[in-house]
From TrEMBL:
Coiled coil: none annotated. The keyword Transcription applies. It comes from Enteractinococcus helveticum. This is LysR family transcriptional regulator. GO terms for cellular component: protein-DNA complex. Keywords: DNA-binding, Transcription, Transcription regulation. InterPro entries: LysR_HTH_N (IPR000847), LysR_subst-bd (IPR005119), WH-like_DNA-bd_sf (IPR036388), WH_DNA-bd_sf (IPR036390).
Amino acid sequence: MNELTLRQLEYFVAVAETRSITKAAARSHVSQAAVSLALTELEKTLGVTLTIRRPAKGVALTAEGRIILPEARAILDQTQQLADHVSQVKNTLSGPLYIGCFRTLSMHVIPHLVEWFGIHHPEVELIFDEDNAQELQEKMLAGQLSACLLYEAQLEPGCRTILVQDHRRHAVLSPQHPLAASEEVSLAQLADFPAVLLDERPALERTLNEFYSRSLDPKVGIRTRSVQTVQNLVGRNIGYGLLMHSTSTSPEGRPLVARKISDSVPRNALMLALPPGHTTATVQALIASLEELPQH
């Protein structure tokens, strides 16, 4: 039997998860030829066909490939655990850390993580994937991401979770808005004025249902998928916004004020989602970094 290598298993898992030799090569930072050769050598070593390579249609796993995939992942995980233990003994962490981050959270968490790891674990390479919550969790459960940062309402089944920060939406207003002088505002008061709402699901549905459940019909003027656009429109006093994070100025530099909503609105905390199984030392460092995340 020929020698089986960890590199062969790594490339096989990458091909299985991406369903593509090209994508697996890009993910592993090697040539397509290197991935193809390693896959062929692994199949010869094991004496089975693991993949079906279809020109222009990607790569499919055979029945044997589907059986061997979890075993290959387990071996790689055990190897990573060993490397983590060695790193802990040496008091240093290194290597890539793949983090999924929901789009609207990026500006609040990514700068902090980059700075924190640069100080405490400069050998760790942070690789961020900014996408919608469902896609991020699917990638994580497929082994492509180590962890995901998202909101509580976006969590999918099958993930372990850690509370990072407790959040509830608040009203964002221009200082010229008629309600800006109040310390807190009700949804009934807001319903009388034009709204600029964030068009992200399930956030939009949750926001509208909070009005509808109180027999209120909000005046939705503009919807946008950009938090910065909401802030700029509010800064121009086009309408009010309902956001999770507050800031004193819009990206255009216009002043903003945040007001607590007097109604009982549900919590939508910032959460760290993790896949089932072992938590590596690098992910433990990520958890530690989030304990120092400033409140926004």
